[in-house]
Amino acid sequence: MKQAPKHPVRLERQGNVALVVIDNPPVNALGVSVRLGIAAALNAALADDKTDAIIIAANGRTFPVGADIREFDMAPQEPSLGQLCSLVESARKPVIAAIQGTALGGGLELAMAAHYRVSAKTARMGLPELLLGILPGAGGTQRLPRLIGPELALDMMLTGNQVSAEIAAEIGLVDLVAEDDLRVEAVTYASTVKKPRPTSEHRAHLLDGAGYMAAVAARRARVKAELGANALAPLKIVNCVESALLLPIETGLQVERSAFEECVTSRESKGLRHAFFAERAAAKFPEAAEAKPAQVERVAIIGGGLMGSGIAIAALQSGLAVTLVELDEHGVNSALERIGAHYERSIAKGRLSEAQGAAALTHLQLTNKLDLIGEADLVIEAVAENFELKANLLADIAVFAKSEAVIATNTSYLDLAALAEATGRPEDTIGLHFFAPAQANKLVEVGVHDDASAQAVMTALGFARALGKTAVRAHVHNGFGEGYIGNSILEAYRHAADIMLEDGATPSQIDGAMREFGFRLGPYQIADMSGLDIAYARRQLKPRSPDARYVEIADKMVEQGWLGQKSGRGYYIYTGGHHMGVPNGDVLKMIAEHRAHKGIVPRKFSDRDIRDRILLAIVNAGARLLGEGVAARPSDIDAVMVHGFGYPRSRGGPMMDADATTPSIIASRLSVLAPEDPSLWGAAPVLTMLANERQKFADLNTV
Q1: Average pLDDT of every residue of the chain
Q2: Which residues form the 3-hydroxyacyl-CoA dehydrogenase NAD binding domain (predicted)?
């Protein structure tokens, strides 16, 4: 017989104190069933003459971390979170929130609607709605300024930063920090409070009217200057806090609700929410049905260059023990200098204390002896992108690594299955492609070949999560997946840009158009930063299709010694303190000569032409990756582009951008932009996906 589902809220009692206990794992999200349960339990407790005080608490590891984001695009279901918070605040008996874990977003709004707040020592609190392009919509913009003052409230809401229980107590957000058992101390505290204390009646923090209004005006000006087109939600937050200073709370709540509804329907919010769900969908590896991650306590990294050192720093920052192997003493010293310099910069900037930096380095073992990797649970090869070098090294690693260790290669371009075979342990071998700088970039691609075991794949996923990375699975099989997802997309991006460069655009024009779109840097600025010789060496090794258009401009630059920032000149010249560089006139002259030699008559491109052509190339490449089974879902491609390549997060990603654009518009832009270029578009699979299989595309993107 099937058991009835457990109700997510129940009413308990300890003496004269009623406990409304939320039990909705994993994070006690405040969906409609939870809201209904809290309201029913609260009303029952209020109706009971034996109840003197009420505690809102939660089972599991955390107080509610927020509303159910999936409801944002649904018809409203009552009670809304705002209605529930008003019900809590208007209760005629004292209501105490007992906060453990994290109280975020709607969870903190619920706690602020209570009359008193008791917190565990380890709890953290915040209102991170801005990260989703919205604002607190259940009274947070009105109650937080009343509790801690408008300036601190703006700091919390405009950054999304969390505060510790200790800080929360100092600024007046919580009344008591429990030293031991939160629930026990909350019940004891409840027995000492005699009457409700509605947050709406807190006015002490709002008395400096003129001073606070000036501070709000200054913050509004700063938001406009710093964020420009992306300032909708931040400006609405400022406006709502201003309302808290000027208006009764009932009116302020109406202002807040109107602002929330405007934000939640904005393109920016939809993009940010899509990116949020894309990250969570990417973590759903099919191997989870077969295996769980093995514990990784020590990682060995072979190769101490920029990539290997970056991976080592990321692991050390996460509390793991690291063995870093360089093949000679010079390499060991260089790696030590590189890692030491990172910690010196972090300490100088106040990101770490000297004690924290020293403690991290105690977990680092630097050596030139490969046989010292035997204690590692995961071994990562991170040497130069050369098949013979990597294959030989991986074979040696397999000799010294313990039998249960997972072996990973940082390649994304070379044949993963062949490299795995070189170890003699292909089932234990996977790809782990970190993006530079590995200590900071949040993306890791997990390359999965057909012989990789579920255990190895899940251990790699667990390791990436332990480092705080967003891991995306790339299935490398049957000749598909060279370049995984990220570099396959990047090649299409660069190819589209290079064709426009050859046909009449300039590097600075293309870069400017992509910065205006929302990228931090354009493709040629990135090429100069990375070094043109690296991509050049890769192109020389890769066979070229006779049908594909090839643009030789970058090759000619390398042959001239123009390698980018490392040589002082590339597409830009880097002298006289110009960190971003100024256009290289010699390159422009060379491009003009190149066009003349090939008989190309330059034509003009608008910024929209540049943006659309590059976006269509990216989406087209993404469609191919989906069709080949390299990427599991469109949102995985979005996660890769947002985290790995700086695609504007507020747009959600290129596949969401394509899905938001009607096929007829795409078709019209294709016919204008590139009808003559089969190497870019081929049979235009993106049109097929969006025009003929639109529902399938949407289904794949469902979380």
Answers
A1: 88
A2: 299-474
